[in-house]
Write a structure and sequence with these properties.
Number of helices: 3
Strand content: 15-25%
Number of domains: 2
CATH superfamily of the largest domain: q2cbj1_9rhob like domain
Low-confidence stretches: 201-233
CATH architecture of the largest domain: Sandwich
Shape: globular
Length: 233
């Protein structure tokens, strides 16, 4: 599994721009279309501050006909799918609390209205794809492998932040050089004399915290969508 890109979407209070109905796949030089976007709410999101709307099951149609946008639409993007309501179930507003995630396929119709509230709406979109997807126009140069490998070497695998560690069954913990270096020389010497191992970074202890949850529709998960959305572009 590859993380192709991630970026923040921010609509400030009173932002008049809307995002018309569209499919992400119509903008991306990737084939076949096996991309799932995980939209992480940074702020609480509701209809008033421009929650994203989706049309469930619209991804079953693969690519839909679109047209160029017009200036009167006041659209952030430049393509629009007309008659979107007939391409799936009734539109659903993804109202979320900060920390919740909503996954959607690159074929899913989605959009949003202007932010008519006095509150910011911010979300982080992370684009995950199967390693057998092929990119054009250099779109494979800025990626990270999140699980498994890419034997073909098509997708770049940039290193994570210094000192970062993604737990795996083979390597559940890793040394924390920052914490170790913060000790005084005397404290470091004491630990060595006692045969102590370096400080380790591991999963945090259980404690009350805000739950990170995923919103799904029709019992379709993000990984189901990667396998299901196999229509070539």
């Amino acid at each position: 599994m590859v993380l192709r890109q991630s970026h923040l979407f921010v609509k400030l209070p009173g932002d008049p721009k809307r995002v018309s109905w569209h499919q992400d796949a119509s903008y991306w030089p990737l084939t076949p279309s096996r991309v799932v976007s995980a939209w992480l709410a940074i702020d609480d999101v509701d209809v008033d501050n421009s929650a994203m709307h989706v049309i469930p099951r619209s991804h079953h149609h693969a690519r839909l006909t679109f047209r160029d946008g017009t200036a009167t639409e006041n659209n952030v993007l430049y393509r629009t799918v007309d008659n979107a309501a007939g391409c799936g179930d009734a539109p659903v507003a993804l109202e979320m609390r900060a920390g919740q995630i909503s996954p959607h396929s690159d074929w899913t119709l989605h959009g949003s209205e202007p932010n008519r509230s006095n509150r910011r709406r911010c979300g982080l979109a992370m684009r995950y794809l199967s390693a057998d997807v092929r990119a054009h126009d250099g779109w494979n140069a800025n990626s990270i492998w999140c699980r498994g490998t890419d034997p073909t070497g098509h997708w770049a695998n940039h290193p994570g932040p210094h000192g970062g560690h993604i737990p795996t069954p083979e390597s559940p913990v890793a040394a924390d050089p920052v914490r170790e270096a913060s000790l005084s020389p005397h404290r470091q010497q004491q630990r060595r004399r006692r045969g102590r191992a370096p400080y380790l970074t591991s999963a945090p202890k259980r404690r009350p915290r805000r739950r990170l949850s995923a919103i799904t529709h029709g019992s379709v998960s993000a990984f189901d969508l990667i396998q299901e959305s196999e229509h070539p572009r």
